[in-house]
Amino acid sequence: MMSKLLLLCFLFFLSCSHLLLSSCFSFSNSTKICPHGQSLALLHLKKSFSIEKSYSNYFKYYHLPNYPKTEYWKEGSDCCSWDGVSCDLVTGHVIELDLSWSWLSGTIHSNSTLFRFPHLQRLNLAFNDFSGSSVSAGFGRFSSLTHLNLSESGFSGLISPEISHLSNLVSFDLSRNWDVEFALHGFDSLVQNLTKLQKLHLRGISISSVFPNSLLNRSSLISLDLSLCGLYGRFPDNDIHLLKLELLYLWGNSNLSGNFPRFSENNSLIHLYLSFINFSGELPTSIGNLKSLQTLSLIECQFSGSIPASLENLTQITYLNFYYNHFSGKIPNVFYNLRNLISLELSRNNFNGQIPPSIGNLTNLRVLDFSDNQLEGAIPSSVYGFSSLSHVRLQYNLFNGTIPSWLYTLPSLVELDLSHNKFTGHIGEFQFDSLESIDLSMNELHGSIPTSIFELVNFSSPCLSSNNLSGVLETSKFEKLINLKDLDLSNNMLSLTMSVHSNSMLPNIQTLDLSHNNISGIFSWNVGKDTLVYMNLSYNSISGFEMLPWKSMRILDLHCNLLQGPLPTPPNSPFFFSVSHNKLSGELSPLICKASSMGVLDLSHNNLGGMLPHCLGNFSNDLSILNLRRNQFHGIIPQTFLKGNSFRTLDFNSNQLEGLVPRSLIICKELEVLNLGNNKINDTFPHWLGALPKLQVLVLRSNQFHGHIGVPKIKSPFMSLRIIDLAHNDFEGDLPEMYLRSLKATMNIDEGNMTRKYMGDHNYQDSVMVTIKGLEIEFVKILNTFTTIDFSSNKFQGVIPKCIGNLNSLRGFNMSHNYLTGYIPLSFKNLKMLESLDLSSNKLSGRIPQELTSLTFLEVLNLSQNHLIGFIPQGSQFQTFGNDSYYGNPGLCGFPLSKRCTTDEIQYPSQEIEAKFESGFNWKITLMGYGCGLVIGLSLGCLIFVSGKPEWLVWIIDKNIHKKIARNKRSTCGRGARIS
Q1: Other CB atoms closer than 10 Å to residue 239's CB: what's the count?
Q2: What is the pLDDT of residue 905?
Q3: How many CB atoms lie within 10 A of CB 222?
Q4: Would you call 715 exposed, middle or buried from its count of C-beta atoms within 10 A (0-12, 13-18, 19+)?
Q5: Which of 437, 392, 393 is closest to 410 using CA atoms?
Q6: Structure pTM?
Q7: Measured between alpha carbons, how far is residue 163 from residues 76, 136, 174 in Å?
Q8: I want to staple 520 with a disulfide (CB 3.0 to 4.6 A). Which of 541, 616, 829, 830 is the partner?
Q9: For the chain, which ranges sit under pLDDT 70?
Q10: How many helices (H) and strands (E) does the chain have?
Q11: What gap in Å lies between CA 532 and CA 521, rounded to an integer?
């Protein structure tokens, strides 16, 4: 009976439910949800934008659904059913509009129909292109708005203050609109008025304000992103009690200082990004309170000290990055419980010691980066379970021992960088083919390259350079490495066997470096004919090429080989082409001028001859380096240089060139080095080169230059010149004092506050041969602080100008083998940086100034073959100079010469007095004095003869004689002489 009753109740329930549902559907179908005015407003809004289909490719990067939602808005249909539109079920008003990722493009004007939806509660326009639109007052009219997202949509200009009227806002995202900024105090007003905020994302918006303390009292906050907002000042030091806060991003505010924030124990923080800000100090032990933390990023801050052991409490952490700080000490052994860790990056700090053993517990680890520290010892050998580890970066440390076997067995390994350590032993065989990049350079590995390397089909960039690897590489082994882009095996002892079937190998390779190996014979490996842009085969024993087939080559370095025969014509595309230090012969073909994009052409140290093509100075606007040193070219230097050219270095040294210095060099405004030494150039001093503003090195030595240098034709010539070599020519006349006064680059170099670097760049560095310290020395690199003047072996005469003392940054000064007279200037005592001084083989007289002993950097001194006299100064560097520094001066005495000095030779007046006397001596004045003296003497004689002995005259003479005797006694006693 009961069962029947229950059955009847159930059937009644079904019947009522059916009636109720029918009624509801009937009501729905008979009611028009979307008001007509709002439907028209939406259609008008649609027409105000265009659809940019190209955005679809950009949005694919985010792996989020994106499509043109407004394309499906049709007139006559219910707008509440349109994509991105939601309405109130009772009133029909549009309360939500989501047009994010909709490919929209256009400007939102202040009168846009977008602002005709007063009941709007949610508005999302993110990821569109509204360039030219501002966050205008219209957005402030949505009084019911709780969620506003305008992120990454091209807004610009000032944010309207009306935005702060949206007091119901719970979520506000304006991030990544890079040209938007708050008006003065606008951000403070927003923070004060929007008291219900849970999410505030303003990444990239210009706030330019201190961090508002009131934000840390907003207990409703869940997510706060103020990255790249221009915040400055000091972050509040008080504890943070935002119990709901899950995300805090402050990265990229480089002027924001402070310490690591202290969070209360019952916090909810999940993501904390404090990178690229000026936070400093040590990490507090309270970091262990962040037990829900999953990501912690402290990249490029100023944190220091050791990592606290409380880090072991972060059991939920997945991403930990302390890159580029000042952390020190040992890496703590705190990883036993951090099993969720996926990425651990501690690079560019000052950690020392060994890798802690608890690292082996991180079985979910994908990225391990301890690079750029001072870690040492062997890598732990008993490590298992790293099935997900894909990136291992341990470069730039002090690790030693062999590479542990477990690194060869990682099934997911993609990148392995152990470079710049002290690993020894052989390279093992890799068990899996997932590896794409390996760098083992700058170690002490030896043996052959493992065969498994040639089976890594995903390999793109192996670097095994600077080891002791040996053996023979067959080019045919590379045939499986079709994805190879960069191959660096330089600085080893490898040789190469080239297969006849290797022409089509490595179809994607872009860079190849086999320099400093044992490769010999004809190079026939035409690898990467269409793709190779960089190839360095220098420092081998290659004798030739079948051809140079590379169509896209930009840098081709073949210097220091055994190349013979005519110069191989480079492809038309290279920017850098060097075949220096080979045995090439023959003439330089004008075809070289077809390489119109050439920037560096170095043919030096060969046996090339003939006349230089006339086009050599004007075939490329990009050519900055032309080095033809040490060949056998003859004829004249090309006379035409392009206006607006890029020449930085012109080196024609050690050829047989003749004629004049090309006057068109005056238009080479970028010229820094001009080396014309050791040729047969017959010209006067090229004074017009003084107008070149960047000229630093001028070498004219060993030519047939002649005549007086004279005075400058322009004001302040050669302002940048710091190496000048005019030696072994026929210049004559006085030393060019006015030019010497202008050498500002040799004065007052503050080495302590300047960056020491070499002339040139990473592609090419200048070199120069100079005579200094008595030797011919080739500087293969020219330091930017090196300065020297060499005027030796000419016919200069007269005195050495005192202004030389102003050149107080000189390292070398050579005036030997001339006809100079006079004294060594006392101003030389100011040349505090001088390392080499050569005044030999002149006609200098007088004494060696005692003040030269203050030149504490002086290593070489040569004053031989002059007419110097007196005592050789003692002390400091002078104690190190031998007889060779002084021979040929018979008037010199004292150490190191065997001739001893007499008392008179030791007791000499200062050079200053002698110099003044010499410079003030004048025969006309002397003759006038003799004449006056003669008249006065005759007059006095007549007076005495007539009147006898006048008492007044006797009294004056007697008194002065007694004064003179008294002075002489005091002076003699003061010098320590005995009076008998």
Answers
A1: 11
A2: 63
A3: 17
A4: exposed
A5: 392
A6: 0.81
A7: 34, 8, 11
A8: 541
A9: 1-32, 57-63, 500-504, 904-980
A10: 9, 65
A11: 21
